[in-house]
Amino acid sequence: MRSQFARKSEKTYHHGDLRDALIKAALREAEQGGAEAISIKALARQLGVSQPAPYRHFVDREALLAAVTAEAFRQLTAVLREAMAEPSKQSKLSRLAQATLDFGLRRNGIYRLMFASRTVSCAAKGSELHEATRETFALVIEALEAPAVGYLRERQALKIWAALHGVVMLAEQGLFTGEAAHATREELVEDFVNETKAALSVAIKDARRRTKAGA
To answer: DSSP for 27-76?
Structure first.
């Protein structure tokens, strides 16, 4: 009876649905345990297909991880884009930063898959995964709401991106509670936002001043 069920399930996923089903199932596993929780063998069993079936869509576990991580970045991008689009007195950068913190703390298994594994660094340049990460980072640059002057925006975007990542990872490890600084994680993130915007404003003014002086 089990083999009949397996054959029936494979037919159900025949037209590319299995690829999507594998990614969704792997995301659910990652929610609980990060990249380490993802097993092609276990996913095949969970979906009721034969063990070779997933390999028709992913050559190995690393390829599956790359696809799952790309989807995770797309989900984060959608969350950040929605946060930035909401009417608010807060700046776009503030909304993006707080949404990133919330995503990282609420979906930590996924966050660790994205930022605490070697999946991105091992992906080929120009891959689906690299494109997904660029789209996310492009939103950070957009959230700065500043003109393009050299690479000043990119530099400040990278700084706050690193700071946000640090808060999430420290909090996840129980190493940051805010008690030492008498501040909540959200307040600390808001400090980063204000410092970033102020530093970028000063850097742009200095750059323009130097340009005028050299004209």
So the answer is: HHHHHHHGGGG--HHHHHHHHT--TTGGGGT-SSHHHHHHHHHHHHHHHH
Gap between the Cα atoms of 8 and 10, Å rounded: 5
Residue 42 has which token pair? 């276990």
Q: Which of 69, 205, 103 is nearest to 147 (CA)?
A: 205
Q: What share of the chain is helix, strand, coil (3-state, %, to 5)?
A: 75, 0, 25
pLDDT surpasses 80 at 40 = yes
* Cα separation, 104 vs 24, whole angstroms: 19
pTM of the predicted protein model = 0.87
Instruction: Give the CB-side neighbour count of residue 156, counting CA atoms within 13 A.
Output: 26
Amino acid at position 183, single letter = A
Of 191, 164, 158, nearest to 100 (Cα)?
A: 164
Residue 118 makes CB contacts below 8 A (sequence gap 6+) with none
Q: Token pair of 92, please? A: 């776009």
**Residue partners of 77: CB distance under 8 A and separation at least 6:** 132, 135, 136, 139
Quick one: 18 exposed, middle or buried, by C-beta within 10 A (0-12, 13-18, 19+)?
buried
Compute the distance between CA of residue 43 and CA of residue 99 in angstroms, rounded to an integer.
Answer: 30
pLDDT digits (tens, 9 = 90+) for 97-129: 999 999 999 999 999 999 988 889 888 888 999
